[in-house]
Amino acid sequence: MSPLVKIRSERDRMSAVERRIADFVLDNAQLLRDYSSQQLANALGISQSSVVKFTQKLGFKGYPDLKYSVGEAIARADNGDDDEAAAQVGGETGESLAGSLWRRKSEAEEATRLINPPQTLAAVAAAIGTAGRSGKVFIIGLGEDDIPARSFALKLSLLGILTVHNFDTARMTANVSAAGPGDVLVVFSEHGNHPALGKISRYFRERRGQVISVTRHTANPLRTLADVALLVSAHDERPYIQPLLYQSALQHLLDVVFVRLCEGDDARHAQLVANLDRIQQMLEP
């Protein structure tokens, strides 16, 4: 795994000092070979031991090991240095812009894949699949989080899974009163700290349902409440790029869950094909 991807995937769980080191390394990857651990510490105004602990926490033997690994990753990348430099200054145009954005999305998707092990994805698919056979899947997302929530609810409906989708907390609270054992609540919340969603999740668990949270890879209340947590890692200092990386990585994560549901049950797959045919017939003149 690329050390830069590893740093990005772990950044959201780092302390404030560790995030400063991570951001410096990510923003100055090509220049890292010219910095000793003491020089890096001086540039950031921190202790050298903080730099050493940072590298060891990431699984490297020490700072020289990290520096060598970053240098190798840059050397292996095809035109990676040009794209990285363009991304840092934000001055990309044409193919350079498209290539840089594509690469950053790929890195966010890879980092997200690494922090969601196969057993977690299998647990999510199994919970939704079980609920789809004998119960209901409740789905909620507020604001921009409703966009992926609505799309995911539609995909589950195409598989013949009964979904209860809502973007209003009051209505979802009322809907949850009909939940029971075996039902699933999927809560979309990028930062995972909306109080109302936490209350709905607690209420759902009181009904003995299973809660699946979809949040950033951070310590947040909603993730703590969930039985299973899907996590998204997407970071960029540019405020207009970071949401794009988050949406891209999240969509890929949900697509993997959807494919698992399709391939894990022949009846669901047949229902998907039948529903798509019906929709196509409705659209025909």
TrEMBL record:
Task: State if Transcription is listed as a keyword.
Answer: yes
| Chain ranges of the SIS domain | 124-267
Q: Which CDD domains match?
A: SIS_RpiR (cd05013)
Q: Which Pfam families match?
A: HTH_6, SIS
Residues covered by the HTH rpiR-type domain: 1-77
PROSITE patterns in the record, alphabetically? HTH_RPIR, SIS
Keyword set includes Glycoprotein? no
List keywords of the entry alphabetically: DNA-binding, Transcription, Transcription regulation
Q: Please indicate which superkingdom the organism of origin belongs to.
A: Bacteria
Instruction: Return the InterPro entries for the record.
Output: Homeodomain-like_sf (IPR009057), HTH_RpiR (IPR000281), RpiR-like (IPR047640), RpiR-like_SIS (IPR035472), SIS_dom (IPR001347), SIS_dom_sf (IPR046348), WH-like_DNA-bd_sf (IPR036388)
- Name the UniProt record assigns to this protein: MurR/RpiR family transcriptional regulator
